[in-house]
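Postdoc handover notes: sequence design on the structure in folder B. Input tokens:
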């Protein structure tokens, strides 16, 4: 029995869950799984073919690799096996992912609802100690929100939290806070003398050279999972912290009482309750009657799998001949059937799957900078209807990353992507924006429209960002802003779902607030100037042609 928190981890991040689920549904939905070695090997081969699992030699032909991925889906409440038929079914959360709903929104709540004990944690081969009665990720968020703690390191989670946090009582919580503070002062000296005896690994011996490695691996996975929710992220010091623009959301989450699901020993009962997606409060489906598996149903599953694979890599905003052709080529299914099924299931496309990847790009530094820029260019073009030109790949310091042109409103704008968790405008970056990008726009743009705004898009910003933006506004005479990737994603979601439609005039106002754009700016109408007048330095007014229409 495991005497610490534990999650299964065939992959340590949740990014590939939609593809893994789609491949599983294609092979195993409405089929028996337990003991079906042929089905398990077929699933393993499908994972390898899709590049989701490393190709390996299956000497024993046991399908153990496939069972690990199946357990991953089960642990997150996306699938279950029906008691009467023993067949695999999707939970409502699993169905929602297959139907193209945002996997981040769905998996965020599956992670937050994750509990010990669960049907999975008590299952044979796992058996997490029943002394744990806790929502582990909620507990982590509570610690991160505490001013006495503020951050967590992987080491603190590995050596203190996953072993000693066993309930959500105030007594337990305060004890863990004290233990973390002690660990920061005394390190391993504050651990119990019998630590490795009490918290030994389930299999094998402890590596004498790296005795805490197995616990560090578990802690790293917990951090990866909570990072996928887009609520918290590791900073430059590798400390897990709540993202600044998600503090209110985390506060709201912690104010909610997430009840424990009872009867974890009853697999179907537990999984169907745990697997409720955000749109449902009950699972009232009648799953007694199993549909006859026809060729069309098989084709539909293959098309859905192909669609989800594409949607993870680029934003899909509708059904196009190119999309139909790509799916037809990859599945071998005729265009007409592909079109019918895509029109039926995803008539408006689905951008949510891609936004998980886009969010990660904003924290990669130079590692994925060009990909971040290209993706941002596509979003401004496809979602917001600008003529968007990616200039960043030229490598020129005299041109910004992206140029936007609005013919409908008669302006052009500048976007600079910064793939950092806490971006600050240095003196060099200030000069580049003011004296190269804004003052010399004619050197890289043939458009004659005036500049509508400039904006930075980053993972997060330093506390000084508002003053830094205002200094650029004052010197250049151009309105500007900064927006976190989280809030930009919210704007994309608003636009694509119709919750709020942003005209180019409205976008000019939002991106021209002369400070960091807040959630309140994008969720409703904002006044023409939410910053102090004058909007720009009037000493430069004669040098700049600024047409602010609705302003």
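Designed sequence:
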């Amino acid at each position: 029995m495991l005497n610490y928190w534990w999650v299964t981890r065939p992959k340590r991040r949740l990014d590939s869950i939609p593809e893994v689920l789609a491949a599983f549904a294609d092979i195993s939905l409405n089929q028996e799984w337990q003991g079906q070695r042929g089905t398990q090997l077929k699933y393993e081969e499908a994972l390898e073919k899709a590049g989701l699992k490393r190709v390996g030699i299956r000497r024993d032909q046991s399908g153990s690799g496939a069972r690990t991925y199946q357990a991953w889906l089960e642990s997150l409440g996306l699938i279950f096996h029906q008691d009467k038929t023993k067949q695999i079914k999707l939970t409502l959360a699993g169905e929602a992912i297959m139907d193209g709903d945002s996997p981040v929104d769905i998996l965020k709540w599956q992670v937050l609802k994750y509990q010990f004990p669960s049907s999975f944690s008590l299952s044979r081969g796992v058996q997490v100690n029943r002394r744990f009665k806790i929502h582990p990720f909620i507990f982590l968020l509570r610690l991160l929100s505490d001013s006495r703690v503020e951050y967590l390191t992987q080491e603190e989670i590995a050596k203190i939290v996953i072993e000693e946090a066993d309930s959500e009582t105030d007594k337990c919580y305060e004890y863990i806070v004290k233990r973390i503070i002690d660990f920061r002062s005394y390190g391993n000296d504050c651990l119990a003398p019998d630590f490795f005896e009490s918290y030994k690994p389930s299999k094998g011996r402890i590596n004498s050279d790296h005795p805490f490695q197995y616990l560090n691996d578990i802690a790293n996975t917990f951090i990866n999972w909570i990072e996928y929710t887009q609520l918290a992220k590791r900073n430059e010091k590798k400390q897990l912290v709540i993202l600044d623009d998600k503090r209110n959301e985390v506060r709201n989450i912690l104010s909610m009482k997430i009840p424990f699901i009872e009867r974890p020993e009853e697999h179907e009962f537990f999984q169907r309750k745990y697997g409720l997606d955000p749109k449902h409060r009950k699972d009232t489906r009648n799953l007694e009657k199993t549909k006859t598996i026809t060729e069309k149903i098989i084709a539909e599953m293959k098309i859905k799998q192909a669609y989800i694979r594409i949607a993870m890599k680029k934003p899909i905003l509708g059904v196009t001949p190119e999309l139909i052709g790509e799916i037809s080529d990859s599945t071998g299914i005729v265009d007409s059937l592909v079109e019918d099924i895509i029109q039926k299931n995803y008539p408006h496309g689905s951008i949510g799957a891609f936004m998980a990847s886009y969010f990660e790009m904003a924290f990669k530094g130079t590692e994925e900078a060009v990909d971040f820029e290209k993706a941002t260019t596509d979003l401004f073009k496809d979602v917001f209807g600008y003529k968007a030109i990616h200039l960043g790949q030229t490598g020129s310091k005299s041109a910004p990353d992206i140029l936007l042109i609005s013919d409908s409103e008669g302006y052009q704008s500048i976007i600079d992507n910064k793939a950092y968790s806490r971006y600050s405008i240095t003196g060099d970056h200030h000069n580049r924006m003011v004296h190269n990008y804004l003052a010399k726009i004619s050197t890289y743009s043939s458009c004659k429209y005036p500049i509508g705004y400039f904006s930075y898009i980053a993972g997060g910003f330093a506390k000084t960002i508002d003053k830094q933006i205002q200094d650029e506004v004052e010197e250049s005479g151009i309105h500007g802003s900064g927006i976190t990737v989280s809030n930009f994603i919210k704007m994309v979601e608003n636009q694509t779902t119709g919750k709020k439609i942003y005209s180019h005039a409205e976008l000019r106002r939002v991106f021209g607030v002369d400070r960091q754009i807040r959630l309140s700016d994008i969720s409703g109408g904002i006044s023409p100037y939410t910053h102090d007048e004058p909007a720009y330095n009037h000493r430069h007014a004669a040098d700049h042609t600024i047409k602010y229409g609705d302003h």
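Context for whoever picks this up: The mean pLDDT is 90. Don't rerun without checking with the PI first.
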